[in-house]
Design brief:
By secondary structure, the chain is α+β, with helices and mostly antiparallel strands. The protein is 37% helix and 23% strand. It has a three-stranded antiparallel beta sheet with strand order 1-2-3. Strand 1 (6-12) and strand 2 form a beta hairpin. The longest helix has 17 residues, at 33-49. The protein starts with 5 loop residues before the first strand and ends in a 7-residue tail after the last strand.
Length: 81
Amino acid sequence: MGQPDLLLIRERNIDGCGGFADVLLRLREPLGPVQRVELLTELERLKRTMDCPDTDAVVGTAIRSVLGDGAEQSDYELLEY
């Protein structure tokens, strides 16, 4: 199996009742272990420090900070059954 080219970032408990928000990204290269830690650290830092930390803004800022143009947000359709 090849390296993943998609990354799903899920912000948990966005409403205090267990709800979540997802952002799907297409990666130009797979995340390495160092990038993974840097990205998680940046996501957590931004969530604490941004004035209005909505999920898309936090993820977009973190991705640009850690990966530069190494990823882009992808739209997706959800099917549940």
